[in-house]
């Protein structure tokens, strides 16, 4: 028997980052928006735990126990006394190491798939606790939609979204390490103030207002990502020149995100990005998208 779960990518429409904490993590006020680019995680009973992966960038995905999908199966199995003997197959469509929470999505997807396969009856709260143990962005991959993440990003408050937003994502040639981007943030921002959410941004999401959202987006990690990956400036400028209402680095990068006024504008921005040679690929996606869903 197999269970397949579809799980979305995310963009941080506003990522406010505070100073490093004693545990090395940073306090955040992180507004997540799930976008319609998906990985599919299929879990099948097997003789032992095994991970396989197909799709763009899958050669960079670790297939050992460091993969968040494998860790999700182990943590859920340990909690319920079930040997995590499953074959986890990941069909990748979310850019790998791109700042779009692809690895987190696979963790949340495997967790929901194993939970369904094993019939544990775990509550949403228990699943969210396991997600938080897996990584800061994993709880959001489970719930999808839009949410404000505080703490290290794992404490979620769900947000209302009053319309569809049209996005374009430029996939960079190469990846960025999240810890390295946070270290660069610390170097560039020795006295970061306590992070706060923006009321204007939350109102823009609630109203489904793309222009207001564009005026309120922001990413405190962007200077650090640009410092480590300077050519992203050219990608951002290309999308802006093609009509994007807003252009920003997604999370810790190096994927860049462009908010468009409508579907036609999104298509034109994607074409301009592709033609410019300033990125490896451009993807169009709508938001909000549902969280981890059993197919
Ligand atoms: O939680 P996750 O494993 O996704 O975090 C990856 C890395 O990103 C952490 O090891 C840390 O270096 C950095 N990070 C951080 N503050 C956060 C989230 C992540 O410094 N709130």
List the helices and strands and how they pair.
Layout: E1 2-20, E2 26-45, E3 50-54, H1 68-80, E4 86-91, H2 102-118, H3 124-134, H4 138-143, E5 146-150, E6 155-158, E7 165-171, H5 178-188, H6 199-207, H7 210-216, E8 218-219, H8 222-228, H9 232-241, E9 246-249, E10 256-260, H10 263-276, E11 281-287, E12 293-294
Parallel strand pairs: 1-8, 3-4
Antiparallel strand pairs: 1-2, 1-12, 2-4, 2-5, 5-6, 7-10, 7-11, 9-10
Helix pairs in contact: 1-2, 1-3, 2-3, 5-8, 6-7, 9-10
Question: Explain this structure to me?
Answer:
- The chain is 36% helix and 29% strand.
- It has 295 residues and is α+β, with helices and mostly antiparallel strands.
- The strands form two sheets. Strands 1, 2, 3, 4, 5, 6, 8 and 12 form an eight-stranded mixed β-sheet that branches. A four-stranded antiparallel β-sheet has the order 9-10-7-11, with helices on both faces.
- A hairpin with a 5-residue loop joins strand 1 (2-20) and strand 2.
- The mean pLDDT is 97.
- Cytidine-5'-monophosphate binds next to strand 2 and helix 5.
Number of strands: 12
| Ends distance | 14 Å
Query: Which structural class matches the secondary elements?
Result: alpha+beta
Number of helical elements: 10
Largest sheet: 8 strands, mixed
DSSP helix fraction: 25-40%
Bound molecules: cytidine-5'-monophosphate
Overall residue-averaged pLDDT value: 97
User: Mind telling me the C-alpha Rg?
Assistant: 18 Å
Dominant shape: globular
